[in-house]
Write a structure and sequence with these properties.
Layout: H1 3-30, H2 34-40, H3 44-65, H4 72-94, H5 99-123, H6 126-132, H7 158-178
Helix pairs in contact: 1-7, 3-4, 3-7, 4-5, 5-7
Length: about 180
């Protein structure tokens, strides 16, 4: 599979995940998790493992196979994602619904904040971004936080997908915590 096809498929998947995330948040706030209880709770563990492990796999494909060097903000997002994949694999075995979602919310909030900051930085024009904000990019200049490896549909970039992933995980964790 070539890079352009993979970018397109990831962008479509990210938009679908965004729709499901909005549905889960509206369901959580307005309908006391009725949609979640009816359709999602039976395979929530599979969803969490699929999203976390799949995201880890895709970040490694882009950096190790395609050779893209992650910037400092990408590394911070990976730091928020990688432990969740390991925690999910351990929690699925024990069906732990008390502390795992709580820790997942905390880690995902950190990742979401970094991803939103990164996404906003990428949307800024270069002259505004360079003059107005200091970025924690790699000192050797090998990776630039403002560069877009993926830019599908004019707005879907890696920080966008990362923010959607963290928001989706938060929605799942909130619904899990509501369950008896």
């Amino acid at each position: 599979m070539d890079l352009f096809t993979l970018n397109f498929l990831l962008a479509l998947g990210g938009l679908g995940l965004l729709v499901l995330t909005v549905i889960l948040f509206v369901d959580y706030v307005c309908y006391r998790s009725a949609f979640y209880n009816r359709f999602v709770k039976f395979f929530v563990w599979q969803l969490i493992v699929l999203v976390t492990v799949g995201s880890v796999f895709m970040t490694l494909v882009y950096s190790e196979y395609f050779g893209f060097i992650p910037c400092s903000l990408c590394w911070l997002q990976r730091i928020a994602l990688y432990p969740q994949a390991l925690m999910a694999l351990m929690a699925v075995r024990t069906q732990e619904r008390v502390f795992f979602p709580l820790y997942g919310i905390g880690i995902s909030l950190f990742g979401l904040v970094v991803a939103v900051y990164h996404y906003i930085y990428q949307l800024m024009p270069k002259d505004v971004a360079v003059g107005g904000m200091v970025m924690p990019c790699l000192a050797d200049g090998s990776a630039d936080c403002a560069s877009k490896i993926m830019n599908e549909f004019g707005f879907v970039t890696f920080p966008f997908l990362s923010a959607v992933t963290f928001a989706f995980l938060i929605a799942l964790y909130l619904n899990m915590r509501r369950q008896p």
